[in-house]
Amino acid sequence: MSAPGATGAGEERTRPPRPHQSRMDDGRRVREVLSYSRRGSRFTPRQAAAWEAHHGRWVVPDEAVDEPGFSWSPWFGRAAPLAIEVGSGIGEATVSLAAARPATNVLALEVWRPGVAETLARVAEAGLTNVRVCEVDAAWVLEHLVEPDSLDELWTFFPDPWHKAKHHKRRLLGPAFAATAARRLRPGASWRLATDWAAYAEQMVAVLDAEPRLEGGVVERWPERPVTKFERKGLAVGRSITDLAYRRVAGGPGLAGDRRPRSAEPHATGPEAS
C-alpha cells in the first residue's frame, strides 16, 4: 500500500518490472546481470528485535514502489532535501551522515536484509527520524523513482568490486549508472564514493570523468565518512582507500533539459534456469 497522499511529480510513466520480477512468456524468471548477489538472511537476536520493532515504520516495502503515483516524501512524513546511500550495509555511514543532516531525508538502499535490520537498530539507538530503507535494486530506483535534478546528495561507499574479469560486467559503476545518477542529481549536488580496490577506483575515475554532467576526481579522505568495520578490514590486509568526489554541473553543450537516461536497468541475458 502506498503511503497516504503519495503522488508522483510530473506525468506518470509506466515503470518496467523491478529486478527479480521479470518473467519470460513461458513463466520462467529472466536471468538478470545485477551489481549484487543475495546473501544469507539469518538475523542475530539484536537484528530480529530491531526488524520486529521498526521495519513497519522505516522500511519502504518493495511492492509499494510499484503503485502509480509513488513518491518518497510521504514515507518520510515531510517534503525535504533527499540524500541517497547506495549499498548502505549495516548503516554505519548512514546513521552518522543522517545525524549530521536532520533537515534531510536520507534513503538507504540495501538488499541484504540482516544489514537492513542492523541499520534499523542503529537508527533507533541514535534517535533519528529522517532515515528510511528500501531493499529494491539501486539502479532501478534511481532511474524510475527519483526525478531528474532532484537529488541533493548521493553516497556510494565500497561497492562490490567484482574483482574477477568475467564479473566486471556486474560492477555498479558503469557508464549507464553514472549517466542516470548524474541526471538525478540537482545542479551543484555532490556524489561521494569510496573503494578499497585500486583497479575499481581507476574504473570509477574513467567512467565518472567521461560523464559530461559531472566534474571531480580523487580527493583526500572525506572527514564526514566514518571508518566502518568493512574499511578497517580492508586496511588490515594492506589495501588503500580511495575517496572520490564529483559534482553535478549545470548546462553545457547538449545538456539542456533532461533526456531519458541510458538504461540503468539490469541487462536481461536469458531465462533463469529452474
Kindly describe this structure.
The chain is of the alpha/beta class. The protein is built from 8 helices and 10 strands. It has helices spanning 45-58, 73-76, 92-99, 113-126, 138-145, 175-184, 198-210, 229-236, and strands at residues 30-33, 59-60, 82-86, 105-109, 131-134, 151-157, 185-195, 214-219, 242-248, 267-271. The strands form 2 sheets. It has an 8-stranded mixed sheet, sandwiched between helices. Strand 4 (105-109), helix 4 (113-126) and strand 5 form a beta-alpha-beta unit. It is globular and about 45 Å long. The two termini are 31 Å apart. The model is unreliable at 1-12, 30-37 and 257-274 (pLDDT under 50).
Number of helices: 8
Q: How would you sum up the global shape? A: globular
Main sheet attributes: strand count, strand direction, barrel closure: 8 strands, mixed
Which regions are unreliable across 5 or more consecutive residues at pLDDT < 50?
Answer: 1-12, 30-37, 257-274
- H/E element sequence: EHEHEHEHEHEHEHEHEE
Please bin the fraction of helical residues.
25-40%
Helix and strand content put the structural class at: alpha/beta
In percent terms, what proportion of residues is strand? 15-25%
What is the strand arrangement across the widest sheet?
Answer: 2-5-4-3-6-7-9-8
Task: Please tally the β strands and state the result.
Answer: 10
Note the gap between the termini.
Answer: 31 Å
The average pLDDT score comes to 82
Computed CA radius of gyration, to the nearest angstrom: 18 Å
